[in-house]
Amino acid sequence: MVRAAVALIGPDGRVRGHDTNPANGSTSWSMSQVLLGLLTRPHLVRGHDRALAALTVALLDVQAPCGGWPLRIGDDPGITFAFYPALALTRLFRNSSRRHAAAEASLRATATHLAEAVTAPGIPLVERVLGQFALERVTDALGMASPVPADHGRQVLAACLVDGRELALRDHLIVIDRQPAWHSLTWHPLLYLCARRWAPPLDRVCSLLGLRLIDGFDRSLRAWTGPARAVAPGAGTSWASCLALNAVSALGRDLAAHGVTPGEFVERARALVREPYEYDVAISFSGSDRAVAEAISDALKAAGLRVFYDRDHEHLLLGEDLAVRLQETYLEQSRFAIVVVSRAFVASRWAGNWEWRAVQARMQQQRSGYVLPYIMEDVVVPGLNPTIGHVLAAERSPEEFAALVIRKIRALPVRDSSGCRNDDTRLNDLGLSSAAD
Predict the structure, then answer these.
(1) Which tens digits make up the pLDDT trace of 87-117?
(2) Pair 5, 34: CB distance under 8 Å
(3) Cα–Cα nearest to 78, from 177, 157, 182, 175
(4) Which of 4, 166, 269, 352 could form a disulfide with 207 if both were Cys (CB 3.0 to 4.6 A apart)?
(5) Which residues does 289 contact at the CB level (< 8 Å), separation at least 6?
């Protein structure tokens, strides 16, 4: 396989043409994807240094003076086209026994270009995801401080949702006249490979991307068609299937690391499509108990739950009527409310008054459990029945309490309103078992 890939590289470093167009081998995409693929097996490419060097030089020659990457020399550089060159040169830089000076200089220029691009207004969302991922990979490899804030990746991920619920990502059209139609679309489910850098698999964005990735598998073709389904119906594509298998493999590893079975993941992801709540949990607490609330929030978010914790939403709360906004959050938008109970909570103007009123109203609306009390001090909270199941801080740490909340939410029954129960068959087709290993 390696010999066949190396045989694609000509003496000038350009890749043999494809898609009936000999010029396609001169694109930065063609060269960088071949280089990236070969460098994933460094122990197998020994003895092919001359071909790799020629390919690297040809790829570097395509880079624009601004540090960006066009598809071909003379084209306009774009974030999408910088993605694969950045990943390939990053791997080259890391794998090289010597500091690869040309690759390092190229990557530094790429980092500068990407930092400006991902923070510019009006950038398409798919390109922002690709650019941010590539930027972080480049800065990590170079050991340099990121030119964008440390939480920018999470901000990009949050932007992938409409109203915090619906996935805003769609296939992204790249208008290049000379590019074949099936290469002119970025297939958005593959962005799971990027999103997993910033969130666990049960995060809403990762869950919905993973579900679309799984649902993109065509059982009759036993392959993925990717965006080519619109221009070549009834045929699977090798490039989409290879990339999708890579993404599904990564999803499987992520689920195993978080103790989630594939069947559970699919059920949860399908539930999110129908999910009426914006948050899994909203946390109500007094200011003096913030350290406890933050520890609970961090543990819940690390497990992929959607949490309303005030400091994460300061930009949304700014300028709002807090009495109205908080009532909406606790009364309508949250599946559960965690209440950190203390004397300070009861005396608090906000937590013990406005938020608690909304919690009480919600408790009266539904019979099933809604409030999850974490008792810091033995104090009477008006309207909180002492027979409601609770956890004492003296017996459980905030992290242990959060673990119980996670287990409760994951144990919730999930019903597919469509009546379709083909998840096990689909997972088996993909090589994933719905049973715990």
Answers:
(1) 999 998 887 755 578 889 999 999 999 999 9
(2) yes
(3) 175
(4) 269
(5) 340, 342, 344, 345, 376
